[in-house]
Amino acid sequence: MPSRGDVQPGPGDALVIVDLQNDFLPDGALAVPRGDEVVPTLNAAIAIFEQRKLPLVASRDWHPPNHCSFRAQGGPWPPHCVAGTSGARFAPDLRLPSTAILISKDVTPEADTYSAFGRTDLDTRLREAGVTRLFVGGLATDYCVRNTVLDARRAGYAVVLLLDGIRAVDVHPGDGDRAIADMLQAGAVAVEWAQVA
Ligand code: ZN
Fold first, then answer.
1. Disulfide check for 138: which of 18, 98, 157, 186 has CB 3.0–4.6 Å away?
2. How far is the CA of 3 from the centre of ligand 1 (A)?
3. How far is the CA of 29 from the centre of ligand 1 (A)?
4. Reduced to 3 DSSP states, what percent helix, strand and coil does the chain have, rounded to the nearest 5?
5. Taking Cα atoms as reference points, which of 75, 79, 68, 88 lies closest to residue 20?
6. What is the spatial distance between Cα 71 and Cα 161, in angstroms, rounded to a whole number?
7. Three-class DSSP category at 116
8. Does some domain include residue 2?
């Protein structure tokens, strides 16, 4: 475990909140078990990043109605996060400031990258803001969090994974734990937000 001083948010750091959208909450179309539990943790993280005037990013699935990941198109998932619908809105309790950088992803029928870096300008915007390290939380651990973190590592960012700020779908038992292992293997550091603040 890293020491508390090593994971204090400061210059060069950004908070990335992955897909904290209604359809991924327990009553949503593609519910992540206990997905709502990450909201208080991420609100606490938002408060610290805002207070320290550090960049905040919120990604969202923003699919067309005929997206390739939906079952009607042969994909694995029920329809979810269709652009402009209530299911695609951010969790109502998430205190996202208006200054947050909004990243809409997988916006065309064939794009299914599960990553906030996939076919978006996130890398450019982070570099422009002088960001070198990402604190990452959100949903779901074994899909969009995992792929976002692995892409961040490939792009050269340091990553602090917030263990109390993520939850897994666990289609197969243990998927979430395996995803965490993959992210650590790729060089991410894992902490509980409680250790940071
Ligand atoms: Zn999706």
1. 18
2. 35
3. 11
4. 35, 20, 45
5. 88
6. 31
7. coil
8. no
CA separation for the pair 54, 85 (Å, rounded): 30
Q: Which domain holds residue 129?
A: 11-196
3-state secondary structure of 48: helix
| Catalytic residue numbers, as ranges | 19, 105, 144
How much distance in Å is there from the Cα of 61 to the middle of ligand 1? 5
Structurally, the chain folds into a number of domains equal to 1
69 CA to middle of ligand 1, Å?
A: 7
The pLDDT profile of the chain, 197 residues, written as one tens digit per residue, is 677 778 999 999 999 999 999 999 999 999 999 999 999 999 999 999 999 999 999 999 999 999 999 999 999 999 999 999 999 999 999 999 999 999 999 999 999 999 999 999 999 999 999 999 999 999 999 999 999 999 999 999 999 999 999 999 999 999 999 999 999 999 999 999 988 88
Cα 24 → chain centroid: 12
How many angstroms does the Cα of residue 119 sit away from the middle of ligand 1? 14
